[in-house]
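Entry 0007
Protein: Nif-specific regulatory protein
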Amino acid sequence: MPHFYANESANDFDLVYEVVQTLVSSRDAEQTLDRSLRHLSSALGWRSAFIAVAEPSGYLAGFCSTGLSEGWRERVRFLPDEGVVGRIHSSDSPIIVPEIHDEHFLADRFGTANELDGDHIALLGTPIRHEGRPLGVLVAFCENRDGTRAFANDLQLMKVVAAPMGQALLLNREAMNKGGYREQVCRRPQKENHPLRNIENAVGYSPSMQRVFAQVHQVAPARATVLLRGESGTGKELIARAIYSLSRRNDQPFVSVNCAALSETLLESELFGHEKGAFTGAQSQRKGRFELAHGGTLFLDEIGDISPSFQAKLLRVLQEREFERVGGATPVRVDVRLIVATNRNLERMVKEGEFRADLYYRINVVSIRLPPLRERREDIPALGQYFLDRFNRDNGRSLRFTEGALKVLSGCYWAGNVRELENCVERTATMALHDSIDRLSFLCEMDKCLTQGLHDIEREDAVRPGRSANAAASEEITPTVSVDAGHESARFALPSRNDRPQGERERLIWAMERCGWVQAKAARLLGITPRQIGYALRKNGIELRRF
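Output (structure tokens):
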């Protein structure tokens, strides 16, 4: 028996003995750890406690708990270095926080569930390891009403019982990897039976993205046409490539076409190819994207933007799997797996006669909706870290986010979704003067982020695009942008919420008129790139005016 017990009371010795006996009494690790946790909590007077285990994804996820309210698993989920719980795991060291309300990250996460009600709640935490291998974290919340309670003895007991807990977790992991102990798996809630789904280069541990990943794995082996739906910037092409990679056609070509980027004439030639002499400049025969994708997968992005006349031509190809090149008369047969994507409401377009109903039914075989970033905020810290890690690799930097920075990212509306988050992280990292990126490093904290120029958020409680929850809580300031107009510096203010033009088309025209129909200046005014405003102008059918 370790020398530690020589100076401890008999009660402490008995408690440790009972916990160890509980842990070795059954192969069901979840049951024994749950009982041990309740026993420790009762004997030591803890308010609540939980055990979080390290997942292959890198996250710390809740395994069992006592004293926490319903939905605790959603709150007990941390990045390896996120908050005090993540630091316990990454540093492999125990921690005592005498006043948990000073740790805003945890106070925000658990306080909303009334689990930290009352004054002077302390946190005790210790890593769970086996033979030096980190497996998880044991955390307890304790009352400290007079602020003088010493927790050294509690923490020492936690460190002692963490060793047999690590043994139990290791045995459980090995058994699950071998497919054993089926009774343990069947006893868990259905949603926890499924392993975490992963897709290469995609970050998504939230329930909504896990459902997307599960659908991807399910539809990939089939030949069925897939319709990807979601707002701009949600990662539709990434998911399309994932379906291709997991399909039986992954050794054949993957060909991608953005339908919105091409006029109808160019789109027909791009998709179907052309014969020599079909039009001016056609000096030789050219295969189209359908032919190039033969045997593989063709991804048509922004399919909701094609014209009604071209919809009829596309429908014929999908029905008969053959077409003629532009300027040709010989049918060309192809075998392609089709994946299409759109950010538009196709059902409404069908009702209004803008999209053919027969084409809609042809492409809407399997539909996968990609949630906007604001519907999966729990993924934002991991996504931000992913983009920052990539920036560090590409630029030889060692930047890191503070907790305050991650809170800013998590609080923004992200109207541009993952693409906007990626740009924000890259911009902030590029301008960072130190290795630590904090809350004040972001433009939105200085009221200089103008993403809201092209988006109108109707919900009064929604955070403005490009503004964090902290910035949104303060008095709204109408941002202004200096635009070089010839030899003068004309200062234009974005219209306020009440008087600015409604609708994307109207806002585009407003910006272009303010800037003399110079796209680059209008893009700066609206806080977007020239390429983005060019695409938006084409999509909305706005012709450029020349002066």
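Curator remark: The chain has three domains: 3-187, 207-369, 478-547. Residues 1-8, 179-195, 456-500 have pLDDT under 50 and may be disordered.
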